[in-house]
Amino acid sequence: MKITWLGHAGFRLEIEKAVILLDPWMTGNPMFPEDRRAEAIEGATHILLTHGHGDHSADAVTLARDLDIPVVGIFDLTSRFEQVENIAVTGFSKGGTVDLGGAAVTMVNASHSSTLPGADGPIAAGSEAGYMIAGEGHVIYFSGDTDIMADMDWMGDYHKPDIGILAAGGHFTMDMARAAYAAKRYFDFKTVIPCHYRTFPLLEQSAEALKAGLPGVDVVEPEVLVPIEI
């Protein structure tokens, strides 16, 4: 398995027979080197979105057309993309599981919001979500944008993820200290990868508080386009 950060909240996940682009915001992302775009998307089989905000979904339609692959996510958002943009989609909802190239992807709750830009202001784009992604003997919890939730209790107990990719930049999501609290209280992660940080001065720039709060856990601060092999 390879997990490669694309900057901000975006990742390239190579798992089972799938190459999944998770919330792949590249155009205009100050952390992403645009001249390495081809490398980042090579062989991609699916685009998996947590919600509609532009720093997660802005490249989804272009990538789906260019690569001839589906956008996968909550039914309301994917249905709009299918009807308005005429791209292939796989829509489902919380509690549902889809098979992406042998990886079992289950949608779970998140606590945030989800909109798309519109001429007269934001357009509702269904509900925000996270994912449990199971494959190759591991379960990854991809939190999406969220704060701490009581739902994390049953999610950790039921799915038992050993890898956490946690939005932890603060202001719009949990910060590092809150993410550490959530990880310690509700999960038994062996590996934690923070994201949604360092992109802008408004967000946290270091994961030191996350590391300090999770002794014994391998907290990996990702580097853009440097694969993490697990």
Provide the succession of SSEs: EEEHEHHEHEEEEEEEHEHEHEE
Cα radius of gyration in angstroms: 16 Å
Number of helices: 7
The strand order across the widest sheet is 6-5-4-3-2-1-16
Overall shape: globular
CATH class: Alpha Beta
Q: Short summary of the structure?
A:
By secondary structure, this protein is of the alpha/beta class. The protein is built from seven helices and 16 strands.
Characteristics of this structure?
230 residues, alpha/beta, Metallo-beta-lactamase, Chain A, seven-stranded mixed beta sheet, 7 helices, 16 strands, globular
Could you please describe the fold and organization of this structure?
The protein has 230 residues and is of the alpha/beta class. The protein has one domain (2-221): Ribonuclease Z/Hydroxyacylglutathione hydrolase-like (Metallo-beta-lactamase, Chain A, 4-Layer Sandwich). It is 23% helix and 29% strand. The protein contains 7 helices and 16 strands. The strands form 3 sheets. It has a 7-stranded mixed beta sheet with strand order 6-5-4-3-2-1-16. Strands 7-8-11-12-13-14-15 form a 7-stranded mixed beta sheet, with helices on one face. The chain has a two-stranded antiparallel sheet with strand order 9-10. Helix 6 links the parallel strand 13 and strand 14. The chain is globular. The N and C termini lie close together (5 Å). The model has no long low-confidence stretch (mean pLDDT 97).
